[in-house]
Write a structure and sequence with these properties.
2 strands; disordered N terminus; mainly alpha; globular; two-stranded antiparallel ribbon
Length: about 130
């Protein structure tokens, strides 16, 4: 019987509107509820954090939001996931979606990200706050 509801929307579209609209509203509210991170006295969001990480690793920040597993991109994604989860209150699932990863690899990346983050310039800047 549980399969009978699979793939159906979990709201009444007559009240809330089309599914795409509701998903967009949820996405916006999810993004707004997360705190920013303070680096060098400046509050930044996840996209700006990606720029900091990419700059440190000398890669294009857009690579962190695409599929790909080169060493530097993997390191950047790992740090982004770790900082996003541990310092910005985001979920593993959310950061996995952002970085185009699935849940289990994102969880492993988070662990690698902790070690990479601790050695990074970003960590030094955060500790300076």
């Amino acid at each position: 019987e549980e399969d009978m509801y699979q793939g159906q929307e979990c709201f009444d579209s007559r009240i809330l509107g089309p599914g795409e609209f509701v998903e967009k509203v949820w996405e916006v509210s999810e993004n707004e509820k997360h705190d920013c991170l303070e680096v060098n006295g400046k509050k930044i969001g996840i996209k700006e954090l990606a720029r900091y990480i990419a700059r440190e690793l000398e890669i294009n920040d857009k690579r962190l939001f695409e599929r790909g597993r080169t060493k530097k991109v993997s390191e950047g994604k790992s740090m982004l996931i770790y900082i996003g989860v541990e310092h910005m209150g985001r979920s593993i699932q959310e950061t996995a979606r952002l970085t185009r990863m699935t849940g289990a690899p994102a969880s492993r990346a988070r662990e690698r990200g902790r070690l990479l983050f601790e050695k990074s310039e970003i960590a030094k800047r955060l500790k300076g706050n």
